[in-house]
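User: Okay, second chain of the day. Same drill as before: sequence in, structure tokens out.
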Amino acid sequence: MTRFFSGEEIRETFLKFFVEKQHTRIDSASVIPVNDPSLLFINAGMAPLKRYFLGESLPPAPDLCNVQPCVRTNDITDVGDRHHLTFFEMLGSWSIDNYFKDRAVELAFELLTERFGFPADKLYVTVYQGDEKLGLPPDEVSAAAWERVGIARDHIVYLGEDNFWSTGDTGPCGPCTEVFYDTGSRHGDEYQPGGHFDTTGRYIEIWNAGVFMEFEKRPDGSFERLRFPSVDTGSGLERMAMVLQGRESAYETDLLAPIVQAVRSSLGGSAATERDVRIVSDHIRSSTFILSEGVAPSNEGRGYIPRRLLRKSIAVATRGGFQEIDLPALADVVIGQLKGAYPQLGENRDRTLELLAREQRDFGRVVRRGLDQLSELVTGENFRISGEDAFNLYATHGMPVDLIRDFAAEQGGSLDEQQFTKLFSAHRERSRGGTAQPGTARAKTSLPPDVVAAIGPVETDFLGYEQLTSESRVLALAGPNGLVDALGTGERGLAVLDRSPFYPEGGGQVGDTGRMTGAGLSAQVSDTRRVDGHHVHVVEVERGVLRSGDTVDLSVDSARRRAVMRNHSATHLLHAALRDTLGDSVRQAGSLVAPDRLRFDFQHPRALTESEVGHIERLVNSHVLANGVRSVEVKPYQEALRDGAIAFFGDKYGDDVRVVSFDGFSTELCGGTHVSGTAEIGLFRIVGENSVGAGVRRIEAITGEAAITYTLDRDRVLKGLVDRLRVSVEQLPARVEALAVKEKKPNRQARISAESLVGLVRESVSGHRHVVVADPPLDPKQLAEEATRLGEELGAVVVFLLPDGAGSFRIGMGVPKNLTPQADAKALLGRVLAVTGGRGGGSARFAQGGGVTGALTDVTATIGDVLDGVST
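Assistant: Same drill. Structure tokens below.
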């Protein structure tokens, strides 16, 4: 090499080269996949472009290039070596149905030798050796192309499955050719033709110079030729920097050195090894990027990855003797390093640091006890941690099973994962079974194969954006046992029609209801759903016979639809108001739009203050009063995002999307139905704000007539109190406070009625019920009796939070007998105290503790979060 290339120079040299070679530079995608349920994160540069390789969409140009951030955890056990990382930047170029192997090799060789200055004699290339069982021949075309451009024959290595690449278990795939750099004899023996080729030590892969997409891998493992061949290349920026900068590892490059130095300084004086420093650096770097994309740490799904990485970092630091590593401070170094290339890191900094601080607080206090117990399980060579011990560590201390597995492997032992999985599954089933309420589960509907066959490729034409009635033809009917020709009086079934004004449940909006009539026919439509890709009406015939092929009249329940539309439009305004008040880091995590209410779940690390809730409510109502006009446009997906529309990662979108806007205040991709002007919402009132899980809040609200009734009812209650206490409305708060102070001590011995707590009982996302009562009129001696009594009467976990007069609190927690299989009071209290501090104990039915410190709202929120996680 003739000169030093910085990380930024490598990015720009790569992109400039391919732009000069007539490739169109495209923006990078989020690491959160869109329209791809097969991936948790974008793990390769081509993953966001799969639809182009499959011919499902036309690319903006046949030849493309970009730099794509990626998250890949399949090599996580190798992190800490010279070059493996969980987050990396992929330099990529693609040719879709244009050039193929020969041109790809020519471009690769020119860029490496002429632009980056690699000596050709230091480069080795691998090609696919073929597989007779799969009917795939050796890739002699690529081998010949490399010889033509100047790679010596003895530097061309034939390998097996490592040189056949795919995007996942299914999808586009094909043979590939990779380029390796010889880092010298100090890292291993020189390759001898026909011998072992060391791809992890001496020879470092710097570029997959061509995945030659020729096939699509099917779910059954077979291969089908794609309609056209394509080229996908990828070069890890960090590995390229390692070689071009003459470093021993990727961690010494200018891309990672600042975070590595910060971690090394943070762990100074501990027993942490250099590998520990690298692991922590990598994991914090990856987690910071993931959180900046709107993900929150959680116990499942996408959020589990940053939680696993962060908890491993905390555990590594703690095991090295360092009591508390400052995750937010280290993440700030990462943000400063990457925000130039990826502005979202700077834009979402506050939210990211807040999430990291919470994860450190929640796990940092319990990890020492967990690690101490883990250390006690090390019993000589080749020890094995039982599944029962691992499950106890998981249930009691929140110790991730991955961390237990890694710890065992590092100490020369193993984990009985089969037994752990069995215990975990049994725990999950008990939790689900113990909390299910009869009749609450919505029956899953599916269409029998014979019904699908009868419908064929015809899709229902949805008319419901413009009209609420239509004349339609019945395409197929299903009864309890499958396809039927007719449904008679009193029979219930499913009907698929050629067109319909009924909106099918989707995007949080419930399905329409209404009527179906015809000659001698009267039927009720009780629900409308999308089932197996079809628009399905749930019908019950009240009079006459409904036959396949009939022409019928459909009529949507218009009053109910209008109520749903008010709530759906209010949900959009609420989302915009939340982002306006709390910041753009707010991300929707779920919603329900029903005729009587709306529910909106969103990612946010803390409870909202009364001031914030009031501001949000006023902001929404200001836009209701302004009568903002709804506009709807259909435009290409990428264009909609560029124009500022909000999309929800994980939702499925086509190439063209429907964009719903209200006077520029709210713009979202949405297929639902909405009011034409915001004044139709009437009035918006928030009736609840609470936690539904770690880092996820829920707002419940009402609109229209329900909001007016709610407001008038509370006004009557207020007037009644004013009259009873003989004060003005303005004087009421002071009068109530004076009464509370006066009556507090004499009433300490009072019993609490279950009826007085019914309105406070919450049902968590997992289904169990709980209530938290701050400052109850009880003596500490009454906590056990009252908590257990009320728990049985309410069928809920009951928690009393009693101030002790010294700036701290006493907690009493009662669990009804039928809930103890999944809600052990002693274990729950332990989880709370691990976060709040304090000491306590008890039994499965009742536990109590003291010395709990913190603001009342914070302690209450912590208790709520723990109770919400009972059955997870």
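The two ends are 54 Å apart (CA to CA).

User: Thanks, on to the next one.
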